[in-house]
């Protein structure tokens, strides 16, 4: 551990001689991922108490935040420097778009809005640490959640030293609950919210808002109607749909157009923001799930992902329209693996990089336009077109024979029928050969 010595010299007012020299040992500089909230504000002051110089870093990834107020607060609490970084554009282009290409969805329902933000935030934190010559990085993620893993796996991949206060006994034994944090804040002059805190935890970014903990920990309890901030209640949504056309190239949206109004957006940040607006207006993208955390426990999460939900359905449609069947089967498996690695915090691992390259390769032909409507909480696909379509309208038509000879189906059916018939030596099921006698014995044992 590198230590910095600070010498304070006190002079005698009569003799001007230095009778006493006081040495204060600094433990080094730490870059703290800072939100401006109670937890990270207390961590900032605590780190200073422990002898660290603290640089705070706040990432703008689309959350509603008073960044100027957060900066002033950090400075008033003794932060050596304050960095406010606008990462919205790179968040969309470098993190959300690859997730769209992968059709990334965790346990069939969660579109990974929190997970995909963490490597974006942590990467810039590491860049600042290197730029400022800091010895450590730190965060305020709790010791029971996934975020500590996501932040730290990124940090360990890019930078070696991490301070995680919520896993340091001296810290978590001192701050058992919110009451202890409030008392500490009052003692050290840390401003605290004057409005009552919502009885749940919330995390917001451009991709989504997540809600968990507090009253939501009871999996049976219904979410309060005033919980949702990003989407309108589908029951109160407009009584007429909005029809959108989304254009893709290499699996990435390059343009969105409101069909009736003729309004278009064609930059990544504008496209995603507009889809959030349209989806939120119609109550699209709400889910309430119990998921499996990487550390082993189950947790309840409520999520709003309006723009991400629209893109998930649109991309899935154009991909199926343009991609070879066998390629897509392999790509589906890669998408599941990618979602797991993203959820678990392995974005910067070599295996995740490899999977991203494979998925990117699979998207070369995923090009075209999808028209859809958003209405009362749902996304409805209306039609699609593509210069790289693999759809043959004449071949599939029930009214035109085309190049297809129905007699050819006889051989296809007969060959496949062997999967379920009993040849002389055994029964072949799903590609595996079972001897008839052993199957009969198993049946007899089961009956007995």
Automatic annotation (TrEMBL):
One of its GO terms (biological process) is argininosuccinate metabolic process. It is an enzyme of class 6 (ligase). This is Argininosuccinate synthase. Residues 30-191 form the Arginosuccinate synthase-like N-terminal domain. Pfam families: Arginosuc_syn_C, Arginosuc_synth. The keyword Cytoplasm applies. Gene3D superfamilies: Argininosuccinate synthetase, chain A, domain 2, HUPs. Keywords: Amino-acid biosynthesis, Arginine biosynthesis, ATP-binding, Cytoplasm, Ligase, Nucleotide-binding, Phosphoprotein, Urea cycle. It catalyses: L-citrulline + L-aspartate + ATP = 2-(N(omega)-L-arginino)succinate + AMP + diphosphate + H(+). Residues 200-417 form the Arginosuccinate synthase C-terminal domain. One of its GO terms (cellular component) is cytosol.
């Amino acid at each position: 551990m590198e230590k910095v010595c600070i010498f304070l010299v006190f002079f005698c007012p009569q003799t001007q001689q230095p009778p006493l020299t006081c040495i204060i040992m600094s433990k080094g500089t730490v870059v703290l991922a800072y939100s401006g909230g109670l937890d990270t504000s207390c961590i900032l002051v605590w780190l200073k108490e422990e002898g660290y110089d603290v640089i705070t870093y706040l990432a703008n990834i689309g959350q509603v935040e008073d960044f100027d107020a957060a900066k002033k607060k950090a400075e008033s609490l003794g932060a050596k420097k304050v960095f406010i970084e606008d990462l919205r554009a790179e968040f969309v282009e470098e993190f959300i778009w690859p997730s769209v290409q992968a059709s990334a969805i965790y346990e069939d329902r969660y579109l990974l809005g929190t997970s995909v933000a963490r490597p974006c935030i942590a990467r810039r934190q590491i860049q600042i640490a290197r730029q400022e010559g800091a010895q450590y990085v730190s965060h305020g993620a709790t010791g029971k959640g996934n975020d500590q893993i996501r932040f730290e796996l990124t940090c360990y991949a890019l930078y070696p030293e991490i301070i995680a206060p919520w896993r340091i006994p001296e810290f978590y034994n001192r701050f058992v609950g919110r009451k202890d944090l409030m008392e500490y804040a009052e003692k050290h002059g840390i401003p605290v919210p004057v409005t009552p805190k919502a009885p749940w935890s919330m995390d917001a970014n451009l991709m989504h808002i997540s809600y968990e903990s507090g009253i939501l920990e009871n999996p049976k309890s219904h979410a309060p109607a005033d919980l949702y901030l990003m989407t309108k209640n589908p029951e109160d949504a407009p009584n007429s749909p909005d029809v959108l056309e989304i254009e893709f190239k290499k699996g990435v949206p390059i343009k969105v157009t409101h069909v009736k109004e003729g309004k278009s957006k064609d930059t990544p940040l504008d496209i995603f923001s507009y889809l959030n607006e349209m989806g939120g207006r119609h109550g699209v993208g709400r889910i309430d799930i119990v998921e499996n955390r990487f550390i082993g426990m189950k947790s309840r999460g409520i999520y709003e992902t309006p723009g991400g939900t629209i893109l998930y359905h649109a991309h899935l449609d154009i991909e199926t329209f343009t991609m070879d069947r066998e390629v897509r089967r392999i790509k589906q498996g890669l998408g599941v693996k990618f979602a797991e690695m993203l959820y678990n915090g392995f974005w910067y691992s070599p295996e995740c990089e490899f999977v991203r390259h494979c998925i990117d390769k699979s998207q070369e032909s995923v090009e075209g336009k999808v028209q859809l409507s958003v209405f009362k909480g749902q996304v409805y696909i209306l039609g699609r077109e593509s210069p790289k379509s693999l759809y043959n309208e004449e071949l599939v038509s029930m009214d035109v024979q085309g190049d297809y000879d129905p007699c050819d189906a006889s051989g296809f059916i007969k060959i496949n029928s062997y999967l379920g018939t009993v040849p002389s030596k055994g029964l072949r099921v799903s590609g595996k050969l079972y001897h008839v006698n052993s199957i009969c014995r198993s049946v007899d044992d089961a009956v007995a």
